[in-house]
Amino acid sequence: QVQLVESGGGEVQAGGSLRLSCAASGRIFSMNTMGWYRQAPGKQRELVAVITSGGSTNYEDSVKGRFTISRDNAKNTVDLQMNSLKPEDTAVYYCNGRINSGSAFSTYWGRGTQVTVSS
Predict the structure, then answer these.
(1) Which residues contact 110 (CB under 8 A, 6 or more apart)?
(2) Which of 63, 51, 56 is nearest to 89 (CA)?
(3) Tens of pLDDT along the chain (119 residues)?
(4) Are the C-beta atoms of residues 57 and 49 closer than 8 Å to each other?
C-alpha cells in the first residue's frame, strides 16, 4: 500500500514563504509524474505544479515565477517551494502521484495540508 503524506503547511503573511513536502512510502517500484494541487473553499481542486520523472516541470499561470516544484527520486519526496505568497494562495494543498507499486501505475493522493496567507 502506498501512502503520500504532506507536511509544511501553516499560516503566513502575504509576501512570505512556505515549503511543502510530500513523502511517499510503502511498496514503491517507481514514481512517474508527481504534482501538487490545491482546493480553496467553494472552489474546485486545481493543478498547481507537476514534475515528471525526468524533471520537466509545468505550473499554473498564477504561480509561475513564485512557486518551484522539485523531487528527490532517491528519497521518494516531492517539494513545493512557495515564495511571494498571496491571500489567494490560501487553500488545502494536496500531493498527487502516479506510482508503480508492483504491477501497474496508479494515482495516489495525500490527505492535504492547509496553507493560509493573511493580508
Answers:
(1) 3, 4, 5, 6, 22, 94, 95, 96
(2) 63
(3) 899 999 999 999 999 999 999 999 999 999 999 999 999 999 999 999 999 999 999 999 999 999 999 999 999 999 999 999 999 999 999 999 999 998 899 999 999 999 999 99
(4) yes
- 51, three cell numbers: 514534475
Phi and psi for 7 in degrees, rounded to 5? -150, 165
Residue 75 region by backbone torsions, left for phi larger than 0, else alpha for psi between -120 and 50, else beta:
alpha
Bridge partners for 18 per DSSP: 82
Say how far apart CA 10 and CA 23 lie, in whole Å.
17
Other Cβ atoms closer than 10 A to 75: 10
CB atoms within 10 A of CB 60: 15
What is the residue type of 71? R
Secondary structure element (H or E) that encloses residue 34, with its range: strand 30-39
